[in-house]
Amino acid sequence: MYPVYLRGQAHLMSRQSNSPTGALAHLGLGRASVLQGEVAKARTAYQDFFALWEDADPDIPILQQGKAEYAKLQ
Predict the structure, then answer these.
(1) What's the N-to-C CA distance of the chain in angstroms?
(2) What is the value of pTM for the model shown?
(3) What is the C-alpha separation between 41 and 2, in angstroms, rounded?
(4) Banded model confidence at residue 15, pLDDT cuts 50, 70, 90
(5) Residue 42 near residue 30, CB atoms below 8 Å
(6) Residue 44: Cβ within 10 Å count
(7) Which of 49, 44, 74 is nearest to 64 (CA)?
(8) CB-based contacts of 53: which residues, under 8 Å, 6+ apart?
(9) What rounded mean pLDDT belongs to the chain?
(10) Domains of the chain by residue range
(11) At a CB cut-off of 8 Å and minimum separation 6, what does 33 contact?
C-alpha cells in the first residue's frame, strides 16, 4: 500500500486528482477477499470503494454491480 500512498501524494503535490482506477482497486480487493473467504476484509474494501465514489452518479454500472456484490455479504 505504501507505493499507492506515495503516488497519491505525488498527485496532490502536482495538484492533480487521482484517476478512477484507484477507487476501482478497492473494488478488486473486495472481490479478491471474497474469493479467499475473508468476508470482513471484503466488507472493508467495498466500504472504502463506496466512500470514494459517494458523489458518483448512482446509475454507473460498476457502482451498481459493487453494491449488489456487497449486499450479498450482509
Answers:
(1) 27
(2) 0.75
(3) 18
(4) low
(5) yes
(6) 15
(7) 49
(8) 23, 60, 63
(9) 87
(10) 2-73
(11) 39, 41, 42, 45
Confidence of residue 1 (pLDDT cuts 50, 70, 90): low
Residue 11 has pLDDT above 80, yes or no: no
Place of cell 484507484: 22
pLDDT tens-digit readout, 18-43: 667 788 889 999 999 999 999 999 99
pLDDT at 7: 74
CB 70 within 8 A of CB 53: no
Please, is 49 exposed, middle or buried when counting C-beta atoms within 10 Å of its C-beta (0-12, 13-18, 19+)? Answer: buried
C-alpha cell at 39: 468476508
Q: Which three cell numbers stand for residue 68?
A: 449488489
Instruction: Select from 69, 38, 17, 13 the least CA-distant residue to 49.
Output: 69
